């Protein structure tokens, strides 16, 4: 732990940035489920399961469709691997910050798309940005964390709770609390978005712009200020 405490983490690695992002993920999940087809686009396990079920039922056309969101997720990961090197040459902002800006633009556009359009369009757009976010933000202050889904956070709560009860790790309760807060932030985002859906309709997703803009401003100021000499430094876990 002493070694970890001595590390000066980048702003894009700060825990509160991850909390803001997972809150947005909760909003995106609630948005697609409530208004855009009754599905979750934050991860792809469900799409693979649905593909398998469709193949098993002989619904081959429906099964093949799931290649679209899966491909969008692959494309998001691919681009988020390639872009950091390219934007580093600009020497203005980190890729992580550009990504948040891109997410703001995408969600702003989605809010203008009427609910009458095919739901798959919005689903694929969210698949794409969720993949990039998941692949870009990997560790919060040295702790591996996901910002688009909760399975691992819930598992880690159990793991670190066990260590806390056995008093095997001095930091155990801290880890339990941090993963619990990630779950709570996701839940809060989902609740908030669900509440505004009946009133704002397709524009409800704009609620997610609030935490995203906060994160973008904080990260931009760090990139152009205190961390301007560290733009070439990779975040932990990359």
Total helices: the number is 10
Mean pLDDT score, rounded? 92
Counted up, domains total 1
Q: What structural class do the secondary elements suggest? A: mainly alpha
Largest sheet: 2 strands, antiparallel
Q: What is the H/E order?
A: HHHHHHHEEHHH
Give unreliable regions as ranges: none
Query: Helicity range of the residues?
Result: 55-70%
Overall radius of gyration: 19 Å
Strand neighbour order, sheet with most strands: 1-2
Strand content: under 5%
Describe the structure.
With 238 residues, the chain is mostly helical. The chain has one domain. Helix content is 68%, strand content 2%. It contains 10 helices and 2 strands. It has a two-stranded antiparallel sheet. Helix 2 runs parallel beside helix 9 (172-200), helix 2 runs antiparallel to helix 10 (209-224) and helix 6 (95-112) packs antiparallel against helix 10. The chain is globular. The mean pLDDT is 92.
Write the layout of secondary structure elements.
Layout: H1 2-6, H2 15-35, H3 45-56, H4 60-65, H5 67-88, H6 95-112, H7 119-136, E1 139-140, E2 143-144, H8 151-166, H9 172-200, H10 209-224
Antiparallel strand pairs: 1-2
Helix pairs in contact: 2-7, 2-9, 2-10, 5-7, 6-7, 6-10, 8-9
Notable features of this structure?
68% helix; 238 residues; mainly alpha; two-stranded antiparallel ribbon
Outline of the structure:
68% of the residues lie in helices and 2% in strands.
């Amino acid at each position: 732990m002493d070694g970890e405490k001595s590390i000066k983490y980048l702003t894009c690695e700060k825990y509160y940035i991850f909390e803001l992002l997972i809150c947005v993920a909760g909003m995106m999940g609630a948005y697609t489920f409530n208004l855009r087809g009754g599905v979750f686009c934050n991860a792809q396990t469900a799409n693979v399961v649905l593909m398998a079920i469709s193949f098993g039922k002989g619904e081959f056309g429906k099964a093949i469709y799931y290649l679209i969101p899966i491909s969008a997720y692959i494309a998001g990961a691919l681009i988020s691997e390639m872009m950091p090197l390219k934007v580093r040459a600009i020497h203005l902002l980190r890729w992580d910050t550009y990504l948040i800006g891109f997410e703001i633009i995408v969600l702003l556009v989605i809010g203008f798309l009427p609910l009458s359009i095919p739901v798959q369009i919005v689903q694929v757009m969210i698949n794409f940005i969720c993949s990039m976010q998941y692949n870009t933000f990997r560790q919060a202050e040295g702790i591996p964390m996901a910002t688009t889904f909760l399975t691992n956070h819930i598992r880690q709560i159990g793991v670190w709770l066990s260590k806390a009860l056995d008093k095997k790790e001095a930091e155990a309760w801290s880890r339990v609390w941090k993963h619990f807060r990630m779950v709570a932030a996701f839940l809060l985002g989902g609740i908030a978005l669900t509440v505004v859906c009946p009133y704002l309709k397709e524009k409800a997703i704009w609620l997610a712009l609030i935490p995203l803009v906060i994160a973008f401003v904080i990260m931009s100021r760090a990139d152009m200020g205190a961390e301007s000499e560290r733009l070439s430094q990779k975040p932990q876990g990359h």
